[in-house]
Specification:
Blueprint: E1 4-11, H1 23-26, E2 32-36, H2 44-57, E3 60-64, H3 82-102, E4 107-110, H4 114-122, H5 124-137, E5 142-146, H6 150-157, E6 161-167, H7 191-204, E7 206-208, E8 214-216, E9 221-223, H8 231-244, E10 248-249, H9 252-255
Parallel strand pairs: 1-2, 1-9, 1-10, 2-3, 3-4, 4-5, 5-6, 6-9
Antiparallel strand pairs: 7-8
Helix pairs in contact: 3-5, 4-5, 5-6, 7-8
Organism: Candidatus Accumulibacter phosphatis
Protein name: 5-oxoprolinase subunit A
GO molecular function, one term: ATP binding
C-alpha cells in the first residue's frame, strides 16, 4: 500500500441564492479543491469566497471547467467545434486563475467537470482539445484526470503533469470505466462502502471492479463528491481510515 495520497472534491458549486454542498467542512478534509468556474455552477462571488476559504484551509486550487450548461449542471453531452471549446476552457481557467491571484494564491491544476470529463475520457479528439486549452493557458498546470482514460493519455502525451484520480463513491466496470449511473450499484451510498472501496484500491494498487476484477494502475488522488447528503460524513470516514492506515494526506502537487 502506498504511503501518501491526495483527496480532492468538486466545490464552489453554489450559484446566486442556490446553495450546493458543504464547502466549509470539506475544505478541512480534502487536500485539493476543484472550483466551478461559472459554466455549470458557481458565480464570481462564489468563486472568490471558495478561493478564500481554500487558501485559508491550505488546500491546493484547481479549476473545474465544463460545457456551457448551467441549467443541466454540466451533465448534458454537447458537440462543440474544437476552437470554440478550447476558448471556453481558457476563459474559465483564466477566470479562476485571476481570482486566485487577486487573493494571493496560485492555480495548481485543472479537472474537467461532468459530461465534458466523461466524454473526454472516451474521445481522443475531445481529450486533445481539453489538453490544448490547458497547455495554451499554462503548461505548468497539473491535469487531474480519471485513471485509465484517454484524457489522461492525452495529457501525458502532450507533456503535462498528470495526476490520475479514482472515485470513492463510484463503481467500476471490468474494463476500468465508471458504471453508468443508470445501472444498479453504480453509486456507493454508505460511508462504510466508500471506505472499503478506497482501502481495497490502495491495497491492490489499482481499480477493483464491481465484478471483482483487479486492474493494476497508478493513481494519485481520490475524489470524494461533496454534493450528497452524506458527503461530509463519508469524506470524514475516508480521511480517518487513511490516516489510521498510516497514509499521509497531501496537497495535489505534493503527490506527484
Amino acid at each position: 500500500m502506498r504511503r501518501r495520497i491526495n483527496l480532492n472534491a468538486d466545490l464552489g458549486e453554489s450559484f446566486g441564492a442556490w446553495k450546493m454542498g458543504s464547502d466549509d467542512e470539506l475544505l478541512h478534509i480534502v487536500g485539493a479543491a476543484n472550483i466551478a468556474c461559472g459554466f455549470h455552477a458557481g458565480d464570481p462571488l462564489v468563486m472568490r469566497r471558495t478561493v478564500q476559504q481554500a487558501l485559508a484551509a491550505g488546500v491546493s486550487l484547481g479549476a473545474h471547467p465544463s460545457f456551457p450548461d448551467l441549467q443541466g449542471f454540466g451533465r448534458r453531452a454537447m458537440q462543440l467545434p474544437a476552437a470554440e471549446l478550447e476558448a471556453m476552457l481558457i476563459y474559465q481557467i483564466g477566470a479562476l486563475a485571476g481570482i486566485a491571484r487577486a487573493e494571493g494564491g496560485r492555480l495548481t491544476h485543472v479537472k474537467p467537470h461532468g459530461a465534458l470529463n466523461n466524454m473526454a475520457c472516451e474521445d481522443a479528439a475531445l481529450a486533445d482539445s481539453v489538453v490544448a486549452a490547458i497547455r495554451s493557458f499554462d503548461p505548468g498546470l497539473i491535469l487531474l484526470a480519471p485513471a485509465l482514460s484517454k484524457l489522461l493519455l492525452a495529457g501525458t502525451a502532450a507533456g503535462l503533469q498528470v495526476a490520475a484520480e479514482v472515485f470513492a463513491d463510484r463503481s467500476y466496470t471490468d474494463t476500468g470505466k465508471l458504471v453508468p449511473r443508470s445501472q444498479p450499484g453504480a453509486v456507493l451510498l454508505s460511508a462504510d462502502a466508500c471506505v472499503e472501496q478506497v482501502l481495497r484500491m490502495l491495497e491492490a494498487d489499482g481499480i477493483v471492479s464491481l465484478g471483482g476484477e483487479l486492474i493494476h494502475t497508478e493513481f494519485h488522488s481520490i475524489c470524494v463528491h461533496g454534493d450528497g447528503p452524506q458527503a461530509v460524513a463519508t469524506a470524514t470516514a475516508i480521511r480517518t481510515a487513511l490516516l489510521g492506515a498510516g497514509i499521509r494526506l497531501v496537497r495535489l502537487p505534493e503527490v506527484l
